[in-house]
Amino acid sequence: MENSISHEMELVQAQLPALCKLLENNPNVLYVGVDSKRVNGEFTTTPALVVYVKKKMPIDQLSVSEQIPGLINGVLTDVSEPHKCSVISNWSELKPVKGGIGIQTKIVIMDSKNHNNKKPVPRGTLGCLVISNKTKEIMGLTNHHVVNFAEEVKENTKVAKLGVDSCEDEEIGYTWISKVGPRDENEPRGLMDAALIKLAVPKSGSNVLPKNTIQGLGNYVWENGSPVFKPGDEELKGSSQPIFGIGSDGIYYKNIERGKKVRKVGHKTGFTNGTVMAVDMLADPHEPNGVQRYYKHIMAIQADMTTGKYFSEEGDSGSVIVNDQNEVVGLLFAAELSSPSDRKPYSYATHIQQVLLAFDISIYQPPKAVINMDVDHQNSKRITFDASPSENGSGEIIAYLWRTGEFDSNGDEILNTSMTFDHTYADAGTYKVSLSVVSADHISNLAAAAVTITKQSVSGRTQYTTAVEKIEHTATEPLNVWMNELKQSPKGTKVADFIQTHQNEIRTLIHHNRRVMVAWQRKLGPYFLKEWYRALSSPEQPLIKEINGVSILSLLETTTLILEETGSPALQNDIRKYRLDLLNTVETFETLQQLKDSLLKSAD
What is 372-471's CATH topology? Predict the structure, then answer.
């Protein structure tokens, strides 16, 4: 049935150019798309050429040139005004969080007409975490109308997580960048209502690597040949593969086809599921500030009739829409203002690919370290360790670090940096094994395992048996752990603050400024970075200070001089202030443990 409908859609789409040509001089036409025909406001399974007009009028009030035929080359047409809907941030009293993450901009705006009254501040939902494809910075995704709803809201206005009784619970970040449809009357059709939130620096002691988890999202697993839904907090699996669609304005991206099941978690209604009824609509969201905008290439979603609630309500704006594979397909921004009593209202979302392209971002996924272990049947003390099943996430894995749990005669743990390697243990015992992977996003993930080798005597001969076990482990970012430990002293806090303040700018300059990039590569910066990052997991190991005749001091001297010339005023000022201290520190200490001990003992 689904394949039959898709084929019908293709046949209808073939007639789109003819209809666009016919209507190109009609001033009442806003947009033409290929989607489901509506009868009495309800979507059907019949494909049609949908013509969106500024205002539907009786046929006797239209000239012959303004009339739209009911059939174009045997294909049905459907004339519709932009679908009236309302942005669904909550402008009323705060309601308890029922699932998902509720957010609100921390700002007070006075009513211009009554200076004793405060204007309500909308409450919405933090959809998910995204990562910049250029700077590799992790940010939050929501709607423009949730965090940038008024002219008084400036860049870097604080955004807080909503609690049960107040929004002062936890500061999560700051308003950053928004994308919204234009207000120009000559071109009122926009693509999206979306915004990014610059996340706040984690507080001291917060060293857990962020996961892109949606509270209460659940997941489908296969049991006895059928998918079974398992409730609970679940991580996102990136975004779905985009599909080409064709509208009157040309090719656009969509992330799902009509008839597919989706679900979301929002601040107001929590977990809901529904069905995609249309994928290329023109929506007319009513915004509280009175601005009129049209949004095109919009999907319409209707809640499953078996559930007792709507798919979305006020306060759910900014939720991400996901498919059965936990891939993001859309960004929720509005819901129907009213609907007949015999059906639930529609909710409206932008295809996520349109958002990702506009901001040059990806749905954030940390890498996932996975350990495979095979015991040699001829020599059970010999084990093959394999990290090849590890998953890249939003950045490709560029480094591996294995800790075997066994120590050599000097008391140093035996390490390995290969994806796959063989190791033979010297004797019986229980060994704690770990694998750290580092992605190109400079994000790490840790997996752990235990190897237990038992020695026994059988008929006078010594035999060994080996058991291996994977261990659940909370992933941590070694750099964050190290910096949070430094913050126990004033001088250590200065070092940690410098890194957290400037690391994204320095990373951007290294990747995109030619002068910085060339110096960094010539002085073997990537290799030193890899070695020093590895030292975070073994802080008592001697630091690598020279590679192929190039010293770490040479790298730092050259790079800091160029950064001082090319960086922002804040970065330039801090480099001038701390450059000599940095060079002396690197020259003085032989291990990261010595450096940390010195910083923790030092006075300000």
Answer: Immunoglobulin-like (2.60.40)
